[in-house]
Amino acid sequence: MNNESNHYPTSVPAQHQQHQPGEQNVMHPEPEIIKSTHQGSNKLKGKVALISGGDSGIGRSIAVLFAREGADIAIIYLEEKEDAEITKQLVEQEGQHCLLLQEDITEPKVSEKCVEQTLKAFSKINILINNAGVQFQQKDLVNISTEQLEKTFKTNIFSMFHLTKAVLPHLKEGDSIINTTSITSYHGHDELIDYASTKGAITTFIRSLSNNLMKQKKGIRVNGVAPGPIWTPLIPSSFDAETVAKFGKDTPMGRMGQPSEVAPAYLFLASDDASYMTGQVIHVNGGEIVNG
User: Fold this and answer.
1) What number of CA atoms fall less than 13 Å from residue 19's CA on the CB side?
2) Given a cut of 60, is residue 4 above it in pLDDT?
């Protein structure tokens, strides 16, 4: 795919995947992971990042970009082994180490296990990226089953609490937590009611935890990124083919974004460049004003 922004696709072929959170290797076209023009400058040299949902999409882009900037990576993924192995290879091509953790983070004790394994491999954790998520298109509230509601909340926000609790005792001054929220946190979504509700909770979690840690004088920053319509495996595995074919066209830029266009926001927040930022959310959404 051409790296010039004016050559990014404005639409994709109609497609649908039956199973969440989806597989990147069968998407058409595959998302762009990192801009070829990005030259690493050791902004994260010697750091270790733990990334949930790090096998594909935005998570993969974060992993590869962080590796290019000198970080070792541990990623948690559910079951997309081929995607995870590709991410590992890409991280290793950048000269860094990558630990794969195949786990279901909706189980509370899994977070402690993942942290223990990361510490065993790398001896430290400096950056936590809470990025795992699911969403299920429903045109009517009454169609949201109790099972779906619980899965969405357990995956998107409960797991974030569990993983953050497990990592927090091992973070030190200057380390950071970055959570993936969403544009839907700010204006809602009529067919993703439960998903948007979890993203609203995540935005509030960012602000609340940031204040809490600042009062404790721990020097740990907590921020977030609120992507708009980004071309990731979650899209064809969430929406019907007709919706996918129109994905992102209603943004001011008239197109969907690529993971490569979102990951630099996480890099900024993880690096010392953002040393005076905490409790904030960066909006990467194709130009929509959300005043949040």
Assistant:
1) 6
2) no
